[in-house]
Amino acid sequence: MPVRVYEWCDELTRSGNLFLLLSTDASGMSYLRAVPALRVRAIHAHANDIDQETAYEMQPLFAEGQEGARWPAYDALHDQPREDGRFETVMLHFAINRAVGAQWGESDLAPLLRWLSRYAAWLEDRARLNHFRNAFLYIVRARFTSEVERRARQSALNAAPPSPGSILVTDENEHWDTLHPRLESEESGQDGLSLKKMLAAGAGVPLHFLAEPESTTRTTAEAAGGPTYRHFEQRQRYFLWLLGDVLRVVVNRRSVVDRRVSRRAEIQLNGADISARDNLSLAMAAGNIMPALSSLRERGLLDDAELLRLFYRFCGETVDVDEMLARGRQAAPAKGFNWAIAQTQPVKIDPAIGEEKGGRDD
Hints:
three-stranded antiparallel sheet; 9 helices
C-alpha cells in the first residue's frame, strides 16, 4: 500500500480517473488492483442520477478473442458475501477535474499537451538551426583562363582545405570570402520564454518552478507560490479522502466476516506538509502568542482551557481541550527540563523559505 499510493496518484494525475478493482475472499482479506483508464469503455449510471454509477464496461480483448468484462460498482447497502463466502468483485471510480454533469475526469496534463508539443518542436528547430549556424562555405574568386584551370584549382582546395588557425597566402588575383547562414535569432529567447509561460499557466505553477527566474525577486516568488500551494493542499485533501473511502469499503467487508472489526471504526489519514514554511510559520506564531497568553493567565483574565485552546489554534492543531487538560493533570511534571534552553533558537531561520540562513544567534 505505501508503494501503490504513488502509482495511484500518478494515474489520477495523468488520466484524471482512477479505477480500482476490489476483490475479497472468504476470510475478509481484500485485494486492490488499479485498472488503466484506457481499458474502461463506458460508465453506466442511474438514469435519474449520473453520480450514482452502477457498472463499468471494459474494452474487449481482441488479441485473446474475449468480450469486454462488466464490473459492478460498489453498493454498501447490498454488499454481502455469496454462498461460497466470497464477496462480489466490484470497481471503485475516482475522478479529478470533472465538470458538472460529467462522468469522466480530465488529466492535469490536458491543458499542457498542445504547448508541450509546440515547445518540443521549437527546441528541435533551435537545435537544428544551431547545428548549421557554424556551417560555412569558402568562396574563392580569381581570374582563370579556362574552365579546366578553375576545376583544377577547386580540386586542389578540396583535397587540402585550410584548417582553422592556419595561414593562407594568396596573390592579388585571388580573393577569399565565406558564406554562412544569417539566422537572426536575437528574439529566440523571448519565444522560448513565452512558450514556458503558457506551460506554467496550464500547470498552475509559477514560472520559477520551471527553473526560469525571469528577474523575479524572492518576495515576488513567495507571493506567486501561494495559489500553487493551495492547489496542492486541495489535491492532497482529496487524495486522503480517496484513500479513506477505499479503506472504509475494506473495513465494511472485513466487519461482516470478523466481528472484532467494527463498521464504525475511525480511520485517520494524515498527509505530509506541502512546504517547510507551514511548520515554521506555525512555530513562530505559537512562540509569539505564548508570552501574551501567559501574561493574561497570570492576571486571571482567562482560564487554562481558553489558554490551551488559543495556543493549539496558533499551532494549527485541533484538539479536545478537556481531554488535554485531563491528560495534563494525570501526567507528572517534567523534571530536570530547562525551559530557558528550550526556548532558545539555535540557528537563524528564513521565514520566506523555512531554511537555515547559515549564521547562529549570539
